[in-house]
Amino acid sequence: MTYQGIVFDFNGTLLWDMDLHEQVWHQVCQRHLGRDVTAQEWHHSYVGRTNAEIWPLLLGHTPTKAESDRLSEEKEATYRELLLSLPDRVTLVDGAVELFETCLANGIQIGIGTAAGRTNVQFYIETFGLHRWFQPDRIIYDDGTMPGKPHPALFAKAIERLGVEPNKSIVVEDGVLGIQAARAAGAGKVYGIWADPTGRDKLGTVALERIVHTYREMSLDDFR
User: Fold this and answer.
1) Of 22, 37, 61, 127, which residue is least crowded by CB atoms under 10 Å?
2) Which CATH superfamily is domain 5-15+91-223 in?
3) Superfamily of domain 18-87
4) 139-147 LR contacts (CB < 8 Å, sep 24+)
């Protein structure tokens, strides 16, 4: 295979949940600031960044680490509660599991590079049984030591953990900042995936090797 590894973003890429995150950020903004999050802020300033990077943008000042941690856990606990209240949404994107298993059966390395924090990642691991397919050290997340997207750190580390050259890897993303991060990390191909028509239109504004809606559209041919 020409492409020997693939790294997935998680939120909006393996799980259709970005609308839930957006909904919760609206609630948080109203609760703490008495205003709403604009579409411009959401799509171009927040998606892909870590919570610690979002709070200064949102609050207009840099909070203490304790304040940032408290606000982040408040937001993420609200998000997890909302997701679990919608059982039909607690599922990986159609075809994802089959693609994982196809990759593993053919020696293609797989990993995750997400700006989600530790508590959410642990929730995803337990809820979706991710360790059935992903080695623990190949799930790279916001552990407080790396900048979020569009910085390439998350994807660069994920690709490195796969043990493949960056130009021999594919990254799958749903966000503009994440796509920029994948390019900066040197990924050989960057795919966009869309959950809704708005997401498809957004991806149409950036250069991508391919845009898919579900993983049933991908096969071994994508790695040749």
Assistant:
1) 61
2) HAD superfamily/HAD-like (3.40.50.1000)
3) Putative phosphatase; domain 2 (1.10.150.240)
4) 139/111, 139/112, 139/114, 140/111, 140/112, 140/113, 140/114, 141/112, 141/114, 141/115, 141/116, 141/117, 142/50, 142/51, 142/52, 142/114, 142/115, 142/116, 142/117, 142/118, 143/118, 144/52, 147/50, 147/53
